[in-house]
């Protein structure tokens, strides 16, 4: 059977093209927050390689310029701007610029996160909680609220939140951050039924330890990593591209019947709530 499918694709270029276009995001516009490095940049690359026009942003202009140049060098259609997702004016500016320059928005990947606190959760302060919940959770919701009407106007869209394995099992010393990531699992489920009415799917990815600046304190410490690897089926940490691809999948037609879900991408760590 496989042989006849391959023969058909080889001898029938139209059939081949049709199967390619199933996963294409050509004509789609994707906002990815905090997308000049790490998982956000990998998500922008994965979406862009599937044909989407990606709007990259982060807080520093120099980082935006660097990411735009990199993506352009990979023949990805890209627009960039600065955006602090914790700032209402910045969020509006990001969406407005996207509408003006790209004509609409179809995809939101809410990726930005902070963790200003390491220690016993009972030592965390109100300021720590305000900062973590504002950037990691509230801005994810408020960005969704801003883009949803514009997605609805275009017949639907996709929202993907970036949670964490820590959202399932709080990491020692990362209590408030872990709780914020658990909140995203709830936000995904709370939004999905309401936005399905506008043909907008809402999903989430929960990465395990991925090699980025954010997690460098973990992967640069051999003792921690040796201990950590005991919990993994695949005995290595993940790469940002391994999350970017899953995000692009969730935004594609192949995932057209998936909403309200979180996909864990952890190398086999056990994730249970
Ligand atoms: N790396 C991992 O092991 C890992 C594991 C699980 C989840 N995550 C999640 O993946 C996402 C991306 O992290 P990463 O690992 O790629 O690290 P990263 O450091 O490359 O990305 C986090 C980005 O968020 C940005 N950011 C922070 N506050 C912001 C704000 N107010 N406005 C705009 N941008 C802001 C930072 O500048 C940074 O670029 C985060 O949500 C993180 O919680 C990462």
UniProtKB/TrEMBL annotation:
PROSITE patterns referenced in this protein's UniProt entry, alphabetically: ADH_SHORT
SUPFAM superfamilies on file: NAD(P)-binding Rossmann-fold domains
GO molecular function annotations of the record: carbonyl reductase (NADPH) activity
Keyword Oxidoreductase annotated: yes
Annotated keywords: Oxidoreductase
GTP-binding is among the record's keywords: no
A Pfam short name: adh_short_C2
InterPro entries documented for this protein: NAD(P)-bd_dom_sf, Sc_DH/Rdtase_CS, SDR_fam
Superkingdom to which the source organism belongs: Eukaryota
Family statement: Belongs to the short-chain dehydrogenases/reductases (SDR) family.
The protein's name: Dehydrogenase/reductase (SDR family) member 4
Annotated organism of origin: Seriola dumerili
